[in-house]
Amino acid sequence: MKRTIVEVILALALVGAGFFGWTNWKQNQAATGQVATLKAASEEATKAAADTAGAVKAAETEMAALREEMAPLEGKVQQLEAVKAAMANGTTLADLEAAYKSQKNLSAERQVGLGALRMLTKGADDPAAMDAFRKALQMSELGDRKNTICAAQIGLAAAGEKVAIMAECLSKGAKAQGDKAEKSGHDDKAAEKDGHADSDAKDDGHGKPGDKKAAAKHAGHWGYDGAMGPAQWGKEFPTCAKGKSQSPLDIRGPFVKARVVVTADYKEGPLKMINNGHTIQVNVVPGSKLRVDGVPHDLLQFHFHRPSEEKIDGKPMSMVVHFVHKNAAGKLAVLGVLLKEGNENPGIKTLWTHMPTEEGPEVAPEGVNFNPGNLLPREFDYYSYEGSLTTPPCTEGVRFFILKTTVNVAKEQVNSFPFKLNARPVQALNGREILTN
Ligand SMILES: [Zn+2]
User: Fold this and answer.
1) pLDDT value at residue 359
2) What's the CATH code of the domain at 363?
3) Is 286 in the same domain as 347?
């Protein structure tokens, strides 16, 4: 139990204070007053407090070690302070849940935070904590929110769930913690986790519009040019360099005949968008499906690249939309729709009206619905191949279907996309077959 809480607090600290939403929470909490919601949960919190005080102390010791090693962790240390302060005040889970409930859509980071707080107050085997971690994982694993993924995986592992922790969540600083954990008599290998602090951190208050350096810094360990460009991704995300089935591809013949039938059944739902520092991503409510030979794959999110990552016979298009899906077996499928310069695209017009032009948390404009099907062409002829996520960690085992029919996008629309270049270069085919129907 003690070990668990330490792990979760550390994992939490890695998510980033702004991202996690402590700031909002504290404001919200101040506004609603501390007294009203305390009653029911306060007993439990008091019970947990004895455990928690010890755990916070242990976490503090470990955090002190981390602090020495990594100055950039400072901001995250403040988050630990927030956790401590919250526990000391007798602030309870009920407060946090109430604060979160008043917000419409809970981001992956807040799910992690909620899971962690539940563990702190209700113990390691609280099913709702596990649910929160699972949800966070599902929401973030297809994006590039590495630290959120790590925190959720660590949270689940700490709760006793058999979950693989990504290699990218393990690092030098964490190794030191792991070793210390051994010394202090705990045997949990999950303690070896990412000591990196700045990836995906969303510290409040910096970053001016057009300040690309700041944006790149915020977005974390990778980007699209210079020292953090695609050629360097492999240093931190080995699959990006060593993988043999990487995406995107330059699509050219000879082709193999494809027999798989692909259809999309996308539904309208409330619009939720995030500028994650690497792209504009639209997170989708459950219900939209891609059927691959009848097998349903749930649409999770879609996002944009400029120019298109895929090339056809060596030529890129202005942009591409990647629709990311997952089936019940966990297999990922990406449907790519190439955007070609031409008339204005009404679907994109709606999205661009509401998109956050600066990196930040998810936004959900009041009363705005969107149907992802608005971005699809009528014809569904495709090229298909086995590939990978085109952003770190470049996970393989992703089936790509790139539609042959392009969709229009106006030049002005391309120009107002906040990322000038967010396309990974094409990767080696390495003997893979490209199919076409
Ligand atoms: Zn993509």
Assistant:
1) 92
2) 3.10.200.10
3) yes
Catalytic residues: 278
Going from the Cα of 306 to the center of ligand 1, the distance in angstroms, rounded, reads: 10
pLDDT in tens, 7-25: 666 666 555 544 444 444 4
Residues 118 and 245 occupy one common structural domain: no
Tell me what the pLDDT averaged over the chain comes to: 76
* Span 262-272, pLDDT tens digits: 999 999 999 99
Q: How many domains does the chain have?
A: 2
Distance (angstroms) between ligand 1 centre and the Cα of 391 equals: 7
**If you measure from the C-alpha of residue 194 to the centroid of ligand 1, how many angstroms do you get, rounded to a whole number?**
25
Cis peptide preceding 72, ω within 30 of 0: no
Region of residue 210 (left: phi > 0; alpha: psi -120 to 50; beta: else): left
Read off the pLDDT of residues 362-394 as tens digits, 9 standing for 90 and up: 999 999 999 999 999 999 999 999 999 999 999
Q: Is residue 207 part of a domain?
A: no
Least confident window among 115-124, 177-186, 238-247, 275-284: 177-186
Together in a domain, 76 and 172: yes
Residue 218 within any structural domain of the chain: no
pLDDT at residue 10, as a whole number: 60
Q: DSSP secondary-structure letter at 371?
A: -
What distance in angstroms lies between residue 232's CA and the mean position of ligand 1's atoms? 18
CA of 284 to the centre of ligand 1 (A): 15
Burial of 64 (0-12, 13-18, 19+ CB in 10 A): exposed
- Let me know whether 268 and 401 are in one domain: yes
3-state class of 3 per DSSP?
A: helix
Task: Select from 191, 226, 248 the last residue of a domain.
Answer: 191
Residue 215: inside a domain:
no
Residue 316 belongs to what H/E stretch?
strand 315-316
Copy the structure tokens of residue 419: 């990322």
